[in-house]
From TrEMBL:
Molecular function per GO: ATP binding; ATP hydrolysis activity
Keywords: ATP-binding, Cell cycle, Cell division, Nucleotide-binding
Highest classification ranks of the organism: Bacteria, Bacillati, Actinomycetota, Actinomycetes, Micrococcales
Pfam families linked to this entry: AFG1_ATPase (PF03969)
BP GO annotations: cell division
Protein name listed in UniProt: Cell division protein ZapE
Amino acid sequence: MVEVTAARLAAGVGWILVTAPVAGGASAPAALPGTARASASDATPAVPGRARALADVRPSVPPARLLADLLPPRHFADARFSTYRANPAYPSQARTVARLEEVAVAVAKPARKGLFGGRKRSAPAVYMDGGFGVGKTHLLTSLAHAVGLDASAYGTFVEYTNLVGALGFQATVEALATKQLVCIDEFELDDPGDTVLMSRLLRELADRGVALAATSNTLPEALGEGRFAAEDFLREIQALAARFEVLRVDGEDYRHRAVVTDSAPLPEDAVRDAVAGRPGATLDAFDDLLGHLSQVHPSRYRALLDGVEVVALTGVHTVTEQSAALRLVVLVDRLYDRDVPVLLAGSGDYAGERSLFTEEMLRGGYRKKYYRALSRLGALAEDGRAVARASA
Ligand SMILES: Nc1ncnc2c1ncn2[C@@H]1O[C@H](COP(=O)(O)OP(=O)(O)O)[C@@H](O)[C@H]1O
Ligand SMILES: [Mg+2]
């Protein structure tokens, strides 16, 4: 059932389980403090004993919520500098924490104007570069907590590009410029258009005195490749590069959970039974969900999952259309942010999460996104199997 295969890992086939039990925050409500809930009034009323479908939820999300939602994911609700255990074998870890604590203090200080209203002292900008699982997201969320969630915006690269898509560039600048700190997790470099857009956005924010903190987007199997993401990052953000301070975070995957599973999808009956009458569970045919995702702006996928604790899908198959696959990647990120277990029943020749995308996609320009989604969905599907076992 569960198999540890280093060779498979090295070959980049399969996925890596990254599930870790969540302390405290696991049962927190889907909305974090300060988050306005989207109206889900146009969702089909729940039929007792039947799980509702994601495809019936049409979240209407006011722009204010898009901004209010820029918070650390539930999984990291309790992450703090004080809960980060720096490994003495890798001095860069303690160095990074110390530097980030200074940054938090500097950001929290009111911006000082020069004499006679001269130029403001420039706000700090840091980029954390390091391997998978060394705690970059833990540290980035800790920074946001240290500065204060009201004064910070926190999101992944994709969430910011989605925000620009939903609000427009200038409105996004205005909205984010009200914050003292903007955190961007997993800065992506695989789409030149998005990279240029984000560089422009960050430059505008830096010019307005907003502090910036970003992390590298490093894949589980991308040792070596991902470890020197800083070079590519600095080259791609061009003029902005001079302002960023690179913090290397060396080390190993903290969880040491490099487990590759190769378990088969669940039988459809088991999936249906596990979610029937379960509060907070949804049940969708995969094609219905893919169709629905094409109708909902990706910036609203978070709201789509309001109150959702378990997601069940039937008829899962290989996605052959790139745009559908990329939307699925965004949904998987949002599910992962919230630790939502996913139960998957396949159709036809579907052999498990790793056959979700085509070989061509896994070799193409977006392979980083696809492998991240496989890694995350693998973890959530493993949690889904536990849900199915518990209800059998
Ligand atoms: N040094 C550490 N001390 C405590 N927890 C850690 C440490 N490093 C990582 N973690 C935990 O391990 C998990 C993976 O870390 P994460 O921040 O997601 O890594 P990365 O973003 O670098 O891939 C998280 O749950 C995080 O809280
Ligand atoms: Mg991370």
